[in-house]
Amino acid sequence: MSDVLVRLLVGDDTRQFERARRLVLREVDRGKPARISLLVLLETAWVLRSRYGMGNHAIADALSALLDAAEVRVESDPVVEQARHLWRDSAADFADRLVGAHHRSLGCEATATSDAGAARWSHFVPA
After folding, report:
1. Angle formed by the axes of helices 14-29 and 2-10, to 10°?
2. b or e along 49-77 (b: 16 or more beta carbons within 10 Å of the residue's beta carbon)?
3. Span 106-117, pLDDT tens digits
4. Hey, which of 61, 63, 99, 104 has its CA 20 to 30 A from 43?
5. Which residues are bridge partners to 113 per DSSP?
6. Domain, as residue range, for 30
7. How many distinct structural domains can be found in the chain?
């Protein structure tokens, strides 16, 4: 869950960081990467912003580190990378960018939204 991933990324609690690290290493020892779902990634980004006060650049860097780590596999990593890139320098929520990128990967031409700001982004349309 996201609490484990947050502990791994932030390392603010040594005991919980070590537990999270051991979980990842256990999978690596089994010859498998640890898996991170899109839902856990979304919640992790939200916690890093709301609880730890991290900005887009710091969260985007953390996401990049996850995408680059050999020990983990992020669900739909090309979609996450695209969303991360679009979101890093924007005022958008990461969730909005990830939903849009995910929809495009499914073949959708646009994502409907009632958010007036998001409706101005490419691949989004007003609902």
Report:
1. 110
2. beeeebebeebbebbeebbeeeebebebb
3. 999 999 989 888
4. 104
5. 126
6. 2-75
7. 1
Q: Is 122 inside any structural domain?
A: no
Residue 124 forms part of a structural domain: no
In the numeric block, the tokens 């979304």 are attached to 42
pLDDT for 49-97, tens place per residue? 999 999 999 999 999 999 999 999 999 999 999 999 989 888 888 999 9
Q: How close are the terminal C-alpha atoms of the chain, in Å?
A: 32
Q: How far apart are CA 127 and CA 124, in angstroms?
A: 9
Please give the radius of gyration of the chain, using alpha carbons only, rounded to the nearest integer. 16
Three-class SS of residue 40? helix
Residue 40 lies in a domain: yes
5 burial (CB, 10 Å; 0-12 / 13-18 / 19+) is buried
**Is this prediction's pTM over 0.70?**
yes
**Dihedral of the CA atoms 116, 84, 95, 76 (nearest 10)?**
130
Q: Measuring CA to CA, which residue among 11, 13, 27, 14 is closest to residue 69?
A: 27
Task: Report if residue 82 sits inside a domain.
Answer: no
